[in-house]
Amino acid sequence: MKRFLNVGVLGGGSFGTALGTVAARCGHNVNIFSKTEKTVHEINNSHKNTRFFPDDIILPNNLKASSDISEVLSKSDMVIHAIPVQQSYDFIKEHRDKIPSNIPYIIASKGILLKQKKFFSEVWPELLEGRKVSHCILSGPSFAIEIMKKYPTVVSIGCKDEQVAKYVQHNLSFKSFRCYTTDDVLGVEIGGALKNPLAIAAGILEGIGLKYNTVTALVTRGIYEMSLFSGKFGGRSDTLYGLSGIGDVMLTCLGSLSRNKAVGIKLAQGQKLDDIIKTNSEVAEGIPTLLVLGEFIQQYNLNMPIFHTLYRYVKGDITLEEADFIIMSRQLEHEWELKI
Amino acid sequence: MKRFLNVGVLGGGSFGTALGTVAARCGHNVNIFSKTEKTVHEINNSHKNTRFFPDDIILPNNLKASSDISEVLSKSDMVIHAIPVQQSYDFIKEHRDKIPSNIPYIIASKGILLKQKKFFSEVWPELLEGRKVSHCILSGPSFAIEIMKKYPTVVSIGCKDEQVAKYVQHNLSFKSFRCYTTDDVLGVEIGGALKNPLAIAAGILEGIGLKYNTVTALVTRGIYEMSLFSGKFGGRSDTLYGLSGIGDVMLTCLGSLSRNKAVGIKLAQGQKLDDIIKTNSEVAEGIPTLLVLGEFIQQYNLNMPIFHTLYRYVKGDITLEEADFIIMSRQLEHEWELKI
C-alpha cells in the first residue's frame, strides 16, 4: 500500500502552489509555507490563491498553508523549495537546522545565485554542511497554470542519489504529472537557469517584429551554447537536450505565458530595464541570472556569442542596432565548431 | 571578386521559389524549373508566384522560370532540388544524364522515399551511379514566406565533401540567410524528414485542447527518439540537436504556419485522413514519411513510443483515446534510458 507523506512546500507563489497541488493530487498531506498572511488565510479558508491564479482554480482539500516555517519543516517527509532563487541561499542558511534529516529536499527555484555566483548544486554541500539532506532539482517545461488545470506535464528530477531520485519520482508522479530521473543535477539546474535569459533574447526578437525562422534559429544556437556551458562547468552537455533543456526552452521562448520573454519584448519596445523590473509583480529570474552568466563569460572568455551579446545589450554596453542576436554577421561556420 | 553562378532550381513551389529568391539575392542568375506553365509565365512576366505567396511578394529580376528541364539543368553551376519528395526519385532517375558533372546538387525536399523505403542519402550512390555529382541536404527552421520577407533565417548544409559544403555555404549565405555546414548528411536528412510526423502529433495534441506543457514534453521526447533513430541508422545523434533537428522541430511543431501540424489538428477534430489529404493543396510530407517510419519501427522492433503510437493511430489501429502520445501511462523511467 502506498504510504502518503507530509510534504512541505516553501513558497506560496505560482510554482510552489502548483507543485503543492501535484503532491496533494498524489494523495500526500501538503503544507505550504508562505510569509504572506493573506495567502495563508486564503489557501486555508477558500482553497484558492488568487494572487497567482484565477478565481476558479480550486486547491485540493489536503493542501493547507502556514506562515510558521518551523511547523512546516518539522513535520515534512519531503520538502519542495519554491521561493525566489535570490532569497534562497539566506533562507536555507537561516532555517537549515529545522530541516529534518534524511529527507529529499527538492529545489524548484531556477537561476544562478547572484551573491555567491554559483548554482545551488555547487553551494549545497557547504550550505547543509554536516546535515544529511539529499537535494534534488526539479525542472522541465511546466507553466504553473497548466499544471493547475491538469494539462499533462513532464519534468526531470535531477539527483545524485538514484534511490532518492526514484523515491521522489514515484511520490510526485500521477496521471497528469510525470517525473523522469537523471543523475546530472547540475545539468538540470543549468537548463532551468539559462533558459530564462534565452527567453529574454527571444522576446527581444519578437519585440522587434521578427518571426519563427529567426526565433527558432536563436533558440537552437542558444541551446548549443548552454550545452557547451554545462559540459565545461561540471554538468553533461546532453542534459540540455532533455526536458530541462530544450523542453523548458521551447516553453519559455515560444510559449505566450513566459515572464522572461515578456521582459525581452518590453526591452525591445524601448522600456528601461529598471522600470520593467519595478512594475513586474512576479520576478523575472532571467535578469540576475544573466548578470552572473555575463561575468562568467567575460571572466573565462567563453565563446557564447548569443548570451554575451544579450548581456552587453541588457547592461547598456551596446544598442539594439549593434546587437546581432542571431549572429548573422559572424564568420560562416561549421555547425558544431564552437569551443567555449 | 565574387563569381556569380547560374543556379537551377527544380520545383516552383513555395520552398523552391524561396530558395531561388535567396540565390538571386546572393547575386546569382536563377532559373526555376516548373512544369506548371502558369507559374512559369507569372514568374517571368509579373515576378510573382501567387499560387504560393501573396500578391505583394515580388521576386528578384535575376530570377526567371522555365518549363524546359534540359535548358535549366544544362546551364546550371549549382542545382537546388525542391520538388515533392515522393516524386523525386523517378524525377532524378529520368533526368540524371542532364545534370552537369562536378556541381553541387542541393536537396531541399524532406521525407523518406515511400517506394524505396530509404533516405535520399542512401539511394544517391545508386541513383547517380557513375556520375560525379555531390549531393547536399539543406534543412533547418525556414518557413518559405518568412524567407521571402527577409526575416533572418539559418539552415544547415549537410555534405560529405567539406569543400563542397563550404562552397554552397558561401554561395547561398547573405545578410538575412545564413548557412552552417556539417558532414552528417544523413543526420540532417533524418531531422528534416522526421520532424513532419512529429508535427502531426503536436497538432493532434493541440487539436484535443492541450497546451504548452504537454506539446513541449511531446516534442522533447520525440526529438530524443529521432536522435536515437539517427544514431542507429548511420547518422549522428547530436545532429538532431541542431538546426535541422530541434530548430526545425520547434518551427514545425510550435509555429502556426505548419502544414503538418494542421493535418494533426484536423485528425483530432475527427476528419478522415483521406479527406484531409484530398483537400490540402500543398503536400503534407509527414504522412508518407510516417508510413515508412512505422514499418521500420515494427520491422526492427524499435523502441520509439511516440512515433509508434502516432503510426498506429494514423493507420487506424488505435483510437485517439487509446493513443497516449506523451506516454504518461508508461512505466516511470530514467530520462535517458530508451534503447532503440
Please write out the topology.
Two copies of one chain form a homodimer.
Chain A: E1 6-10, H1 14-25, E2 29-33, H2 37-46, E3 63-66, H3 69-74, E4 78-81, H4 85-95, E5 104-107, H5 120-127, E6 134-139, H6 144-148, E7 153-158, H7 162-172, E8 177-182, H8 185-207, H9 212-232, H10 243-254, H11 259-268, H12 273-279, H13 286-299, H14 305-315
Parallel strand pairs in A: 1-2, 1-4, 2-3, 4-5, 5-6, 7-8
Antiparallel strand pairs in A: 6-7
Question: What would you call the shape of chain A?
Answer: globular
In total, the number of strands of chain A is 8
| Beta-strand residue fraction of chain A | 5-15%
| Main pleated-sheet profile of chain A | 8 strands, mixed
Low-confidence stretches of chain A: none
Helix and strand element order of chain A: EHEHEHEHEHEHEHEHHHHHHH
Structural class of chain A: alpha/beta
Q: Helical element count of chain A?
A: 14
Compute the separation of the termini of chain A in Å: 50 Å
Q: For the largest interface in this structure, which chains are involved and how many residues does each contribute?
A: A-B, 57 and 57 residues
Oligomeric state of the chains? homodimer
Roughly what is the average pLDDT of chain A, rounded to an integer?
A: 93
| Radius of gyration of chain A, taken over Cα atoms and rounded to an integer in Å | 20 Å
What's the helical proportion of residues of chain A?
40-55%
